[in-house]
Predict the 3D structure of the following.
Amino acid sequence: MFAVPFYAVACVAFGSIDPVFRDAVPQWNPLAWDFTQAQQIAISLAAGPLQGVALRTIFYVACAMVLCFAVGFPVAYYLARHAGKRKLMLLVLIIVPFWVNYLMRMLAWVNLLSTDGLFTRFMRVFGVNYNWLDGSPVTVILGLVYGYIPFLILPLYATLERLDWRLVEAARDLGANSWQAFRLVTMPMSKAGLVAAGILIALPMFGDYYTNDLLSRSPSTEMIGNQIDFFLNSSSQPQNGALLVLALSMFLLLFMSFYLRSTRQEARQHTG
């Protein structure tokens, strides 16, 4: 389910282009792969037109992840520690957005953020007159946060729910205040869950293009996903799209290797 589609993408990336119809002609024999176009894409990502898109994508995802953790961790912590009888109801409220198609949720934001939208009119009461849908990076980042934050809250909650809270109570009994107990006990114990939740939202964010298309549609906010979509569906250069898919996959392997290393160290600590 992974190797065969990935190999097919590689065959398109290192294949050729039909001179008449400008369609991709996959090269199924790895010994005959042509890496000329791959070198050009690598140069473009490193110091060419695609460099700005790549850096912008990293910046948008980094900002969205920071906001997701800032909002999601307190919510997950509250659910695990203080929700009590309201826990089930709150979990259902977090899961409810999954019942609605992602595109429909983004279209709802388009209506809210339009010039006559409810949120825009509400902000005007406080003197804020801002065109949210006019190629705004803030809108794209907030759209990513809204779209993916449930994927962060649920695994964080599952991790915090399994923690041995007696260790926190022991730290308080030994003289630690609330912040010290949180920093020295709760955070280290939830490290694996934090990393897993971060990976879970970072991977789809890097390839996201629907959010940008619906909330911005501006070249100034394009991400790597938008470039991949353009090359594969709207241009005569499908090779470039496939090569960007491979480049993005190689970059995301860094996140996966960090996650695997963290979980391996966590397992060694428990077994040791």
Q: What stands out?
A: The CA atoms of residues 12 and 26 lie 4 Å apart.
